[in-house]
Design brief:
transcription cis-regulatory region binding; transcription regulation; transcription; six-stranded mixed beta sheet; alpha/beta; 392 residues; Rossmann fold; four-stranded parallel beta sheet; Arc Repressor Mutant, subunit A; globular; 3 domains; DNA-binding transcription factor activity; DNA-binding
C-alpha cells in the first residue's frame, strides 16, 4: 500500500474565503490520491505552528501573510504554494482571486443601476484592497462617472480604533454626493459602512448602495439591510493550489507566476437592489416601503410619510421606477416570500402572515403572477441553489 503524502494546510478557518479554499483542496483530494492533511487551528496572521520547524512532510499550501510565515515556509525547503495576495515568497507558485475582474464586476453592477457617483472604501494594509481600488477607480473613470475614495486606517495598524474610524467614515459619508454606489474592499468593511449609514439615517440602497466582496453568507445576511457581494471562486483557488502542489510533489517544475481565478458573479441582496434616485421624497417613501411592506401597509400609509399628493407620488414612481407605490409594496413582500421559501421550511400560512398577506390563497395568486411559478415549484427549484452563484 502506497504511503500517503503529508501536506500542511496553513490556512485559517475563521472566514468564508479561507474555508472556500479548504473546500477546493478537499475537492481536489477527493478526485485524486488522498493526502494526510495537517491543519492547525490558527488566525489569519498567526505565527507558523512550532512543529513546522522539524516537520517531515511532503508539501505545504499556505496563506503567507506574515514575514514569520514566509521564513518558515522557505526554511522548510518543501514544495509549497501560496494562496495569499501578500506575496511574501515571490519564488513559489501563487494562486489568488482576480482583483481586476472583481473590481470590474462591482463597478458595472453599480453603474448598471444608474449610479454616477461611485466610491471605494479601502483597507490599505492589504495588497488585494489596493489592487481592487486601482482597478475599480480605472473602470469608474472610463465610464465617465465621478470617483471618490475613502482610505481607512488599516485594521493591521497599531493605531486602529473602531471608534475613531467610525467617526471618520461618518464624516466622509455625510459629505459625499448622493445617491452614491460604494464598493467596500470586503464584506466586513461593507458591513461597517452600512452601520454608519444607519446611524446617519441614510437610506440604503436609495441614497447609498453598498457592495462587498467574499459573499460571506453569515455576514451578508446579518447586515442591515442584507449585503450584496461579489462571489469569489475560492474553491477554484484551493483546487488550483492543490493541483500545483501535486505536480511539484511529483517532481514536475512549476513556474512561480501568479494564477488568478476569476470571481463567480454577484449575489444581489437589498443593499444594491435599487435604481439610483435623486428625488429625495421618492427615496424616503421607498425606504419606508422597504422597511414596512411585510407589516401589511398600503399606499395610504405611505402617504403619511410624504408631503406629495397621491397623484404626484404615483406619477413620480412611474417615471423613476416604472411601477406604482402599490406595486412596489407587493414587490417587496414577494421578495421576502422568495427568501423564506428558499431558506426555511415554514408552511405557506406562516409565510403569508410574516410577509403582510392576510390569506395564503391570496399570496399564492400574487406569487404566481409575479414569478410565473407556484410557491411549491419555486421552493423545489430554488431551495437547493442557495449556495450557487448569481450574476445580476
Amino acid at each position: 500500500m502506497a504511503t500517503r503524502q503529508r501536506v500542511a494546510l496553513l490556512i485559517e478557518t475563521s472566514n468564508a474565503y479561507a474555508r472556500g479554499i479548504l473546500q477546493g483542496i478537499i475537492q481536489y483530494i477527493n478526485q485524486h490520491e488522498p493526502w494526510s492533511v495537517y491543519l492547525p487551528e490558527q488566525e489569519r496572521t498567526a505565527n507558523p505552528p512550532a512543529w513546522l520547524a522539524d516537520w517531515q512532510g511532503d508539501g505545504i499550501i499556505a496563506r503567507v501573510e506574515t514575514d514569520s510565515m514566509a521564513t518558515a515556509v522557505e526554511n522548510s525547503q518543501l514544495p509549497a504554494v501560496d494562496v495569499s495576495a501578500a506575496r511574501r515568497v515571490p519564488d513559489i507558485p501563487w494562486v489568488e482571486t482576480d482583483d481586476l475582474a472583481t473590481a470590474e464586476l462591482a463597478a458595472d453592477h453599480l453603474i448598471e443601476r444608474g449610479f454616477r457617483n461611485l466610491a471605494y472604501v479601502s483597507d490599505p494594509g492589504f495588497n488585494w484592497s489596493k489592487w481592487r481600488e486601482q482597478n475599480f477607480a480605472n473602470h469608474v473613470r472610463q465610464s465617465s462617472a465621478e470617483y471618490f475614495l475613502y482610505e481607512s486606517t488599516s485594521r493591521l495598524s497599531a493605531d486602529y480604533r473602531w471608534q475613531d474610524e467610525e467617526q471618520s467614515l461618518a464624516d466622509w459619508l455625510a459629505n459625499v454626493p448622493k445617491p452614491i454606489g460604494i464598493m467596500a474592499c470586503y464584506d466586513i468593511k461593507a458591513q461597517q459602512v452600512l452601520d454608519v449609514c444607519r446611524k446617519l439615517d441614510l437610506a440604503v440602497p436609495e441614497q447609498v448602495a453598498v457592495i462587498g466582496v467574499d459573499d460571506d453568507q453569515l455576514l451578508c445576511s446579518l447586515a442591515s439591510p442584507p449585503l450584496s457581494s461579489v462571489i469569489p471562486n475560492s474553491r477554484g483557488v484551493g483546487f488550483e493550489a492543490a493541483s500545483l502542489l501535486h505536480q511539484m510533489m511529483s517532481g514536475q517544475q512549476v513556474e512561480s507566476e501568479p494564477r488568478l481565478i476569476k470571481p463567480l458573479g454577484i449575489r444581489t441582496r437589498q443593499s444594491t437592489d435599487v435604481t439610483a434616485i435623486e428625488d429625495d421624497e421618492i427615496a424616503k417613501t421607498l425606504r419606508y416601503i422597504r422597511e414596512h411592506a411585510i407589516h401589511g401597509i398600503n399606499v395610504h400609509d405611505v402617504m403619511q410619510h410624504t408631503e406629495l399628493t397621491r397623484r404626484v407620488l404615483e406619477s413620480r414612481y412611474q417615471k423613476l421606477l416604472g411601477r406604482s407605490p402599490h406595486q412596489e409594496i407587493i414587490r417587496q413582500r414577494i421578495a421576502k416570500v422568495r427568501q423564506l421559501l428558499q431558506e426555511t421550511e415554514l408552511p405557506l400560512e406562516t409565510i403569508a402572515r410574516r410577509c403582510g398577506f392576510e390569506h395564503s390563497e391570496y399570496l399564492s395568486v400574487m406569487f404566481k403572477r409575479e414569478t410565473g411559478l407556484t410557491t411549491t415549484q419555486f421552493r423545489n427549484t430554488h431551495r437547493d441553489q442557495a449556495g450557487t452563484s448569481s450574476t445580476v
